[in-house]
């Protein structure tokens, strides 16, 4: 049976790989994007996750197109890396607002339909940095760490309705976000990864596909690292 899926920030990188993977699994996949042109082949809605009104409107369009959302992947995110001593309050709060409060807004709206259906999957895309920390990324790490507490609270709150909430924590992934890093820095990061390489976005997407599948029906409140061993023990 075709399921209605939403991937936020599904127009590039990890989000697009997740959208493609779930579509390949036979799901009807909608994506939201904030700027630029959406990829072809998906029902795409422009939406800024920092606005509850825009999130509401996006869900209404998606529900009209493919029915209530059964699987939501909160992937939309930003980075504004700065050392703490130089970080403005706006630089801190804007990253929290997109990454963490954005995930809250999306989950809150998705749960409406899921509770009626008495089933659903909430999958939050966090980061190895949320668990191990990273210099210059206090805002990003705090936002990604917060996702773990959010998902585990939702897992406890919604489990009786057959709704699971899990986190995928990618490591160093080959995307536009990492491509801008200095080559020397990229090499240093790779040396700290037991598998000595970056992940491809598709490798993150496969973990999401598993969590969205019937095979993962008894997994909730979990954090699945897909990081080549980078965050081991965290």
Automatic annotation (TrEMBL):
Cited SUPFAM superfamilies: NAD(P)-binding Rossmann-fold domains (SSF51735)
InterPro entries in the record: KR_dom (IPR057326), NAD(P)-bd_dom_sf (IPR036291), Sc_DH/Rdtase_CS (IPR020904), SDR_fam (IPR002347)
All residue ranges annotated as the Ketoreductase domain in the record: 3-176
Keywords: Oxidoreductase
Coiled coil spans: none
SMART domains hit by this protein: PKS_KR (SM00822)
Family recorded in the similarity comment: Belongs to the short-chain dehydrogenases/reductases (SDR) family.
PANTHER family to which the protein is assigned, alphabetical: 3-OXOACYL-[ACYL-CARRIER-PROTEIN] REDUCTASE, SHORT-CHAIN DEHYDROGENASES/REDUCTASES FAMILY MEMBER
Protein name: 3-oxoacyl-[acyl-carrier-protein] reductase
Organism: Actinocorallia longicatena
